[in-house]
What we know:
Blueprint: E1 15-21, E2 24-33, E3 36-42, E4 47-53, H1 54-64, H2 73-81, H3 84-87, E5 88-91, E6 95-102, E7 105-112, E8 114-115, H4 118-159, H5 176-182, H6 191-231
Antiparallel strand pairs: 1-2, 2-3, 3-4, 4-8, 5-6, 6-7
Helix pairs in contact: 4-6
Amino acid sequence: MSESEGKHIAKDNYKYKELLIDEQKYLVGVRKRNGSWQILVTNLVEAYEETLTEKTAVARCKQLNPFLVDIDFNERLNNLLIDIPKYAIVCTVQCLKLAFEIEGGKFMFEIKLAQCNPEYFHDNIMNSLYCSFSELHHRYQNLLDIVKKKDKEIEEYKAQGVEILRHSLVTEPFTEKVFNSKLKNSESTDKINVFLNALNLYESLESTKSNDISGKQRSIGAESKSQLDETKPKVKCEGSVKRPWSKEMRCAVNRKLPKRVKDSKQNSAFQYL
């Protein structure tokens, strides 16, 4: 396993990939939530899953790999589970057996699947699909509005006598009827691939939302800090001078010393610490 692969970890949201089981296409999703790995396998009709706590997963690693010592099993599992189709050697809806080459042998692991209830299937698969198609429909409507406005903008330019020099850029005015009738998807419908694209779109949208929220929080934090700095009172120290080797003025409290003889060599108090 390459070093670059080791940097990836299973994310909080399911990340799906295609998996062949008995020569049929399935989806396998993995996520890590609350310190546990969750593996979900589905053919869109039935779903199977297993939740592995770190304690259970490490114990299974030790059982299947008794000769491995002084090894970080959590890191190995992250590397293994992030790409189950790549490391799967035996696949059934009851068990997925995984293995990858290590120095001196193979690292083995098994995922023991159990059928999900309908509520789990809906919450973790169908709900993501609904959100994805809702977002796609929203973008579709916005794109239609943008294209229609562009056509009106072009008409306005033409009315002012503007001509397009490159004829290859000339387009017919957009009509939604032609768009819906002539631009249909003629490719064969692979339900698993369609579903996979929709689910991964959902994950991408969730990731974008999280990044936007984090960015806004950082911006608000920086703005609050700036405002706080502006409201802080600026302390001025009378009778103090700036040290030539320092960019900051460091003021100490003037000490009140008893009167001394004028011609004494020690007739002044330090004003700096």
